[in-house]
Amino acid sequence: MNGVIEIGWLQLGLCLLFILAAGMASIALRLGLQRDLLWGTVRTFAQLFMLGLVLKYVFNIRIWWPVLLIFWCMLAFAVQIIHGRVKEKSVRHLDTTFFAMFLSFTLITMIINGMIVQVRPWYEPRYFLPLGGMVIGNSMNAIAIALERLFGELRKSKDLVEMRLTLGATYREASADITRAAVRAGMIPSINAMMGVGMVFIPGMMTGQILAGADVITAVKYQIMVMLMLVGSTSVGSVLVVLLSLRRCFTRDGRLRL
Amino acid sequence: MIELRDVSFGYTDTPLCVAIDLTLRRREIALIRGRSGCGKTSLLRLLSRFHLPSRGDLLLDGRPYSELRYEELRTRVIYIHQTPVMEDRIPVLENLLLPFTFGIHKIREKPKKDELEGLCATFHLPPEVLHREAVTLSVGEKQRVAIIRAHLLQPEFMLLDEPLANLDDESAGAIREWIAHQSHANLGLVMASHQSVGDLARGSVRFLEITGGRLYERRD
Hints:
The complex is a heterodimer. Chain A is an all-alpha fold. The relative contact order of chain A is 0.11. Chain A has helices at residues 9-14, 16-28, 34-58, 64-85, 94-116, 125-156, 158-166, 171-174, 176-196, 204-211, 216-248. In chain B, the strands form two sheets. A six-stranded mixed β-sheet of chain B has the order 6-7-8-3-9-10, sandwiched between helices. Chain B is of the alpha/beta class. Chain B is globular, with a radius of gyration of 17 Å. Classes of the chains: A mainly alpha, B alpha/beta.
C-alpha cells in the first residue's frame, strides 16, 4: 500500500454521528452544550476547508517574503492570544511578548528549515509553514506560563522583593529567585514532553507521516527533531520574555510597579 | 545629611502633606508623630525613594535623589518595614548575610561570627538565634534582627516605621536601649511612632509632627 486511503464524503458525513452522540448526552444531562457543539462543528468544517484552499495556493508560492509574511501573521495571532490570557494591568507586556516570540520563533524555524532539514529553497512553504506553525503553536503556551508566573510571584512576594531593595539590591537581584521560577515554569513542559513521548501515544506529526506512507524511521527522526526544537524555542522564548518583562515591573529608580 | 526642599507628597488627587522644608542630620534622632493615616509611613518611604514627591526635591549630601543610583541611595538610607520581612525558610545568620550577596556590597568584608554574636547580645538575643529559621522568630525578634541586618551595612540613616508597635516588653526594651545609644553613634535615626519612645536621651530627640497636612517641629 502506498499513499493514504481516501476518506469518502459519505464516510466523512458519518463522523457527524459522533457529534450526534455528544449532542444527545448534552440534552439528556442538560449540559447546555448543544449550541457550542453545533457551532464548533460548523467552524471545524469551514475553517479547515478554508485552510486547505489557502494552503493549496500558498504551497505554490516561489518567493520568500510572502511565506515569511504568512508566518508572521500566524505569530501575531499567537501573540494576541497570549496577551489576552495574561491578565496583568499595571505592567505593559504586549511589545515584550511580541519581541520575544518574534525573535525566538523566527530564529528556531529558520534554523530548522535551513540547517537541519536543509529544505531548498529555505522558505519552501510546504516545510516552512507547518514546522513554523508547530513551533508557534506548541511554544506560545510556554511564554504565557512564564509570564503568568513572573507577574504572579512578583505580586505574591512583593514585600520580600521590596525588602531586598531596601538593602541595596538591584531589581534583578531583588527578583532573582522569581525570574528563575518563571523561566523554569516556561521550560519544564517541553522537557517533560521528551520524557513521555512515544510511551503514551504516537505523536500527531508522526501519525500523519506514517499514515501518509513515509518510512517509520524517517517519521521518528522528524519527531525527535520536533521535540528538540520545541525545547529550544520554549527556552529562548521564556528567557527573553521574562528578562524583558521583568524590567517593566520596576521603575528606573527601583520601585516595584505592581 | 538629607534635605527636603518644598516637598509635597500624597496620592494624585489627595495630597497628604505639603510644603515640607526639613534637614535631617546624622547623629540625630527624629521622631515623626501624627494620627494614623497622616503620612508618616509615606514620608519614610519618600526618604528611601519607594515613594516619589509630587513636588519639590530631596537631596542626600547636596546631591538630588534622582542623580543617585537607587542601590547606593538605599544602602546609605535604609528603610525598615513596620512588619519586618525576612527570608522565612533560611536561618537568621543567612538573612543577616543576604545583603552581602548583592553587587553593591560585594567589596565589603562579611561580618565575623563574634561580631554577629556581639550584636545579638546588644539586642538581648541569645547567640543560638543565628541558627534558627527566620520563620520561627516572634515579631519582636524579627524587628531586632532587621535592625541588626541594616546596621551591618553601616548606613548613614535608618528609617524605622513604628519600631515599637506590637512588641513584647523585652523586645521593646532592647530596641529602646539601642536607640538611646544612637545619639552617640554616627547614625541618623528617623522614626515614625504614635507612641512614646520612652525617656531616651532627653534633648537629643527632634519631635516632628504631621497635622492638617503640614509638618511642624515641636520643642517638647
